[in-house]
């Protein structure tokens, strides 16, 4: 997997801060991913590019609570 990520056509992914293995849930500025791993593939050649750890139910609920708290502050 890392070999695909290192290819020159994927250099832009590094510029975006992505890695060969990524966390897929953000709450309060903290990245999490305690769920299943999914593989992102290049649709042109079906080669894997990177993986993303999905949010677990707990990750999702934590992020939603953080969003609700932020919304209350923002709405004041």
TrEMBL record:
The keyword Oxidoreductase applies. InterPro entries: Ald_DH/histidinol_DH (IPR016161), Ald_DH_N (IPR016162), ALDH7A1-like (IPR044638). Keywords: NAD, Oxidoreductase. It comes from the Eukaryota. PANTHER family: ALPHA-AMINOADIPIC SEMIALDEHYDE DEHYDROGENASE (PTHR43521). Belongs to the aldehyde dehydrogenase family. This is Aldehyde dehydrogenase domain-containing protein.
């Amino acid at each position: 997997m890392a070999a695909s990520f290192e290819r020159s056509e994927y250099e832009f992914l590094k510029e975006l801060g992505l890695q060969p293995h990524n966390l897929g849930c953000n709450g309060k500025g903290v990245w999490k991913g305690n769920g299943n791993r999914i593989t992102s593939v290049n649709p042109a050649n079906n080669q894997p590019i990177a993986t993303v750890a999905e949010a677990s139910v707990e990750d999702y609920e934590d992020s939603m609570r953080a969003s609700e708290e932020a919304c209350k502050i923002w709405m004041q």
